Amino acid sequence: MIKYEGVDLDFSLAGKTAVITGGAAGIGFATAKFFHEKGVNLVLADLNPDADKIAKTLGENCIGVSGNVCDAEYRLKVIEEGVKAFGQIDILVNCAGIVALESAEILSEEYWNRTININLSASFFMAQAVGKYMIDNKIAGTIINMASQAGVIALDKHVAYCASKGGIIAMTKVMAMEWGKYGIRVNAVSPTVVLTELGHKAWDGPVGDAFKKELPAERFAEPEEIAACIAFLCSKGAAMITGHNLLIDGGFTIK
Predict the structure, then answer these.
(1) What is the 3-state secondary structure (H, E, C) of the chain?
(2) What is the pLDDT of residues 78-90, one digit of tens each?
(3) What is the extent of the structural domain holding 81?
(4) Residues 86-123: pLDDT tens digits?
């Protein structure tokens, strides 16, 4: 059962420990910085071999564990290192992901499988591992899965990405349904284009300017805006929100 424990007007997360996959860059790192300001202990799980150095730039109570989230032994290592450093894991944010842009008729099997494996399968098995840990240790934790507006609507040349993100939304709902009895909440967030370093490279210029005109907000999202929504969903203020997919899209999908 997801208990009501009152609403903290500051939406505090102080003393919690969060694992963030893909935490050394992009939305994952922006979330890590936001969480650190909220007093969260951090475990950045990232393919980058310098994940621990990057984590240490945030300050104390931050560690990085380098490795491939597609590897089962690595996923367990991330949990073990987090528990060893901070006592327990309260939050998982699944941010690791890739995108392969190609038309459906020519997308290779290699890129289809790679996209599904990293975006969907690795997210599921990381959530499964953390969920089992929370259940076994009676921790009423929170899991956030990174989906996308591409999981809700069709986007040209995004067939594998759309499939993977739609799958994340579906798995989020099932996990929320099954794990609510343990006090575990599971939600997804679905951003539009986010102006990370990669976002700028892909969307700065005429194509991005044209796309922005399709959003009622007439702009793309900043990484900190996604991080703020994730932090809210992990707070007591969101205690009755589970199985939800929060669209952070400037109104793009309302059409």
Answers:
(1) CCCCCCCCCCCCCCCCEEEEECCCCHHHHHHHHHHHHCCCEEEEEECCCCHHHHHHCCCCCEEEEECCCCCHHHHHHHHHHHHHHHCCCCEEEECCCCCCCECCCCCCHHHHHHHHHHHHHHHHHHHHHHHHHHHHCCCCCEEEEECCHHHCCCCCCEHHHHHHHHHHHHHHHHHHHHHHHHCCEEEEEEECCECCHHHHHHHCCHHHHHHHCCCCCCCCECHHHHHHHHHHHHCHHHCCCCCCEEEECCCHHHC
(2) 999 999 999 999 9
(3) 17-195+222-248
(4) 999 999 999 999 988 899 999 999 999 999 999 999 99
Q: What is the pTM of this model?
A: 0.95
Answer yes or no: is 215 within a domain: no
Q: Which of 4, 133, 161, 182 is catalytic?
A: 161
Domain membership flag for residue 201: no
161 is catalytic: yes
